[in-house]
Amino acid sequence: MFSKLYEKIKEFIKEQYLYLSLYFVILAVCLYPLPYYIYSGGGLISVDERVEVTNGYQAEGNFHLCYVSELRATLPTYILAKILPSWELSPMSDSALSDSETDEDIFMRDRLFLNTGNTNAVSLAYQKANRSFEVTNTKNYVLYIDERADTTLKIGDDIREINGQKIENLEDIRSIILNSNPQDTLTFLVLRGEKEKEATGVVYQEGEEKFIGVAIQSDFDYETDPKITLHFSKNEAGSSGGLLLTLSIYNQLVKEDITHGLKIAGTGTIEMDGTVGPIGGVKYKLSGAVKEKADVFLVPKGDNYEEAIKEKEKHHYKIKIIGVETFDEALESLENLKS
After folding, report:
1. What's the CATH class of domain 135-219?
2. Which of 77, 100, 182, 207 is the most exposed place for a label (fewest CB within 10 A)?
3. Looking at the whole model, is its pTM more than 0.90?
4. pLDDT digits 0-9 by tens, 55-77
């Protein structure tokens, strides 16, 4: 039975060889990734559903994170991007991906940005609501590795020790590098994933400064009262939702409903001091907010705000756009919406 089936398949391939070859060539060409990304209007994600505060207050309105749809270009999608005005091509050379980094490195860094942004949001919201936030542990992550660095450190490594000295904060790391000599090799004990590993880094000097060619960012473990749990999936990354996350947490910690029954979307990073930072892809995020019928779009002041206003006027969007520089300014703006 199987021998007959095999003979039939073989005969079919012989008879249709040219057509099959052409088919697979066309398929390969259509699926081959081109050195471009395609960006288009995204949508909204309910941030309130990602925030769980024990006995938190409920709101009539809601807060939403904005996202941008990103696609690696192939020949068919490249052609479509040339036709569709809502699709925009961007060369990979314009992205954050350097010659020495992989897509995994980029995602790991964006994941670190998400974790730090979430910590900033929780810390600031609890502070503004006069609730308890206590740091229990500091972690120092490798965020970026310069192409000139001579090191076996990897993006995402949590630095625990250097030359046997326990590391508590960034100042400990700076002090060790400052007191080292050029060409000294430092030995790092790091947590990589769930395993402790050893890595090395060679000190070099430029002018009066000493470096190992590595950027490091601190993040924290913490305890809060009331308890908070954040629900973000493992494939989510980036810090652009920090402002809206802070507002959502704060709204569950205070009696007054700062949404005033409105559907509020927006974007912007958040620092522990309440500063709202700029982001990319504003026009796509605004498009998604309009598509999902949001009432308000919060955006960082400056270039982001000006771009949003320009898009609103261009497409005659029916949405209120508010530019803010700080968390306090965002609260004041939402309070003014009551009337």
Report:
1. mainly beta
2. 207
3. no
4. 999 999 999 998 876 666 677 66
